[in-house]
Amino acid sequence: MATKTVIRTAISTAIRTAIHTATQKVTKTIIGSKLSRRIGVALAAVILLTGQTVPHVRAEQGGEGTTAETAYPVYPGKLQHGQLQAGEWQFYSLVAEKGTKVKFEINGARGSDDELTVIISHNNQTVRSASSNAGMRFEFMAAETGTYKVSLFTDVRYDYVLRADYTPGILITINGQPFHTAQSAVMMQGVTRVPMRAIFEALGASVQWDPRGKTIRASKEGTSVQLTLGSSVSYINGTKTTMNASAVLIGAAAMVPLRFVSEALHAACSWDERSREIAISY
């Protein structure tokens, strides 16, 4: 079984590397051609849906090597100034509540050839895309609470100002960096809950799920944790403790109180109600 897993992992890695390398070569070849915008959009759709890293030359925010997973956050009503070079991608992200109408406005250089392409995606699915050479305004409805990624591309230099208006969801940062999860943190009955597996694994813990007993076990560096969905009782190194709220299931994610992350893994956790931001450091 272990051998099969290793083989599958090796094949998957090889395929991802081949796709990434080939895409970079194709992107460099088509830059400057009249078809570059069309091909660029097609490449973006394929890469975003397969979870690959989009070819990136330089990021105005975040430094070289920025990907959609390490995108710069867009805050409601705040202007984001940026500059794209020919063939460059830049990435932003926002966390929106379910049912929220997100309105985007992007203004920049105007000219017959100065076209900017914008792709909005959520869970590796394209939600909205648009291209314009004279700035653009568009909107979309957040079908569920979560992180929406904004990818910008141009085949010429493009100076722009981006603004988004929406009701923000809860943003999680770990050691000062935005951390995106499939299931966003939520506020329930006055208690902030976070997805346990995503957060614990990001902090270096291993997590196991027992579907029969609806029990979750986690361990890290000599610390063991156990809890059951629907209960506020947990065990840390065998000692019974009571969480300030019960663990619940939302979608496919087990959600635990933010305070429990601190108690179980000794991480520093804080909640800023004004900015709706959870900050975790360890």
From TrEMBL:
<dbReference type="InterPro" id="IPR012854">
    <property type="entry name" value="Cu_amine_oxidase-like_N"/>
</dbReference>
<feature type="domain" description="Copper amine oxidase-like N-terminal">
    <location>
        <begin position="173"/>
        <end position="280"/>
    </location>
</feature>
<dbReference type="Pfam" id="PF07833">
    <property type="entry name" value="Cu_amine_oxidN1"/>
</dbReference>
<dbReference type="InterPro" id="IPR036582">
    <property type="entry name" value="Mao_N_sf"/>
</dbReference>
<protein>
    <submittedName>
        <fullName>Copper amine oxidase N-terminal domain-containing protein</fullName>
    </submittedName>
</protein>
